[in-house]
Amino acid sequence: MAGPAKEVSRRSATYLGVALALGYESVIPWYISYHAESVLRVRKRLMRIVMISLCAVLLSACSSSIAQTSNDQSAIPARQESPQMPPCKPPKVFYNPPASPPASWAGGGPKSATTWIELTVDKKGRVQNPAVVQSGGKDVDRQAIEAIQQWKFTPAMCGTHPIEAKIQVQMDIHLQ
């Protein structure tokens, strides 16, 4: 379609969009037979018109709402300084007796083993829930946990408050 015929078609489609929105579905068959277009093309055109209309309404509502809030100074919250977290320090060991070699090592030559243990240092600096993370052997692990349970720590601190902290400790056991 070219020129005035295209303009007439747009006006007809707008008319149909309004008619459809108002519930006048009986107009659609007349429009289809009059213009000899397929039902699918008519539905697409009507949906396009309805979507454009909705977008226009939403855009105008949003722009008027933005204009109202930009004129209203109380709508902008005052900038608040975020409270800084106090610096935190990890626990420090102050008493750590070494682990003794297991009895199964007696009579052999020099030996050594390493065990990694994860533990929690409570707010009073005591060891809680020691668990082997990397084993150095069954007997070595048992000796390492017995030694670790005797260790004493200064607790982890956040600001002036003691906190619980989970740490990992490497325990080396040597037999000379």
CATH topology of the largest domain: TolA/TonB C-terminal domain
Gyration radius, in Å? 40 Å
Give the % helix. 40-55%
Query: What kind of assembly state do the chains in view correspond to?
Result: single chain
Mean pLDDT: 75
Q: Categorize the overall geometry.
A: elongated
* Level-1 CATH class name of the largest domain: Alpha Beta
Number of helices: 4
Can you identify the CATH superfamily of the largest domain? Answer: TonB
Task: Report the order of strands and helices.
Answer: HHHEEEEHEEEE
Unreliable segments (pLDDT under 50, ≥5 consecutive)?
1-8, 69-80
> Structural class per helix/strand content?
alpha+beta
Q: What is the strand and helix layout of this fold?
A:
Elements: H1 4-21, H2 27-35, H3 39-71, E1 88-89, E2 92-95, E3 111-121, E4 127-134, H4 138-148, E5 152-154, E6 156-158, E7 161-163, E8 165-175
Antiparallel strand pairs: 1-6, 2-5, 3-4, 3-8, 6-7
Helix pairs in contact: 1-3
Describe it for me?
By secondary structure, the protein is of the alpha+beta class. The chain folds into two domains: 4-67; 88-175, TonB (TolA/TonB C-terminal domain, 2-Layer Sandwich). The protein contains four helices and eight strands, in the order H-H-H-E-E-E-E-H-E-E-E-E. It has helices spanning 4-21, 27-35, 39-71, 138-148; strands at residues 88-89, 92-95, 111-121, 127-134, 152-154, 156-158, 161-163, 165-175. Strands 1-6-7 form a three-stranded antiparallel sheet, with no helix packed on it. A three-stranded antiparallel sheet has the order 4-3-8, with helices on one face. Helix 1 (4-21) crosses helix 3 (39-71). Residues 1-8 and 69-80 have low confidence and may be disordered.
